[in-house]
Amino acid sequence: MVRHPKTGKFYISYYDSVNTALKMAQEVAPGTGNCRDENWMCETVQSGDSVGKYSSIDVVYIESSNPILNHTKIGVSFYDATKQRLRYATCDSGPMYDCVWQVYNVDDSSNEQVSVGQYSSLKFDSENIPHIAYQSYNIPLLASSVKFASYVGEGTGNCIDGGSFDCETIDSASDTLGHGSYASLDYNLYSGDPIVAFYNAEDDALEMASPTVFPGNECSNADWTCRIIDDDGNVGKYVSLHAPKNGYDTYRFAYYDATNSKIKYAIYVGTDGNCTNPAFDCYAVDAVGSYTANMNPISLAMDTSQGDDYPVIAYSQFAPEGWTHLKIARPAVSYGNDWGNCGDVPPGYLFQYWQCSIVALGGPHMHEGYYVSLDVNSAGLAAIAYSEEYVDYSENSLMLARQQFEMYLPLIQR
Hints:
By secondary structure, the protein is mostly beta strands. It is about 0% helix and about 50% strand.
């Protein structure tokens, strides 16, 4: 899910398992949509044997520059499971533009035992150029990697013959098919660098990569620097990354600790941190139970509404009975509280930092939040796109939970 930078409307890319298609839902004027909720317009981006898994969406607004008029550019990266390849769909939308989807093959393989494009994460850079981080694995060689693709122009790319993207391997590993999975891409707007967080399957660790090279910390591709952040147990799956947006911001990660079945949070502190990498502090947020492979249960966003940058994490939690709840965690101080109700006491603190709350309560017939995407607006209000599974009818729905300001009616005494 992504918010339009000018209108504030939401766009959500998702997989339609019934029609094996990539779809997009776009928030529109009330009552003008065609989805079950008529405030939303749903459309098929591409359909086929099985296309649309592991999708990632981004939206930019492009100001007019003769002869180009003001318009919105939408981009979606996704996995074509039938061909085991990475694809990218884009369209321009605006008063003088009809959204006609153009679909690119980004990275491909003629070997059916080689897969490219799972766990894709898409971002437009400051020049409105799309970039994609994703995983590749080779079954015969028992090898896997995290890769990076950048659009370079029609037919000029090096990923595939006649392609439009350049691709490079950031880091690779042998004797595992899981290295580079759960990739999360963000841009450090202060330095301009792309930052990729991913699961290091060799060390069962959370790792981060950037193209700024620090000698002695090179990835398998020496043009990138790789740094393990946390390897305390089996950690780093389902990572969600926030990279600095200015000189006062910092790196933050929400991710899964499979050893202890908890959500963890890591933040860059420079020195004397308690993580494997002493430049970071790491600590638990909440106990969530045992996640399965077919879910994307963690999403991190920032609340900048109060002058300080507060992290917000949306996530699913397994109840002891086996069903899942959708929850949200915020720093207790962002609510005006002195202490929280969940997680570890962070280094340098006296009390629990996080306040954890249930957003949507699951039950024997309902699972909430297998796939989670979080946004926080400039007023600090959160919105969460997520899946809801109705077990009795094997029905899945795309849902949106939106936080509203509390309103109190006046009390009139007579």
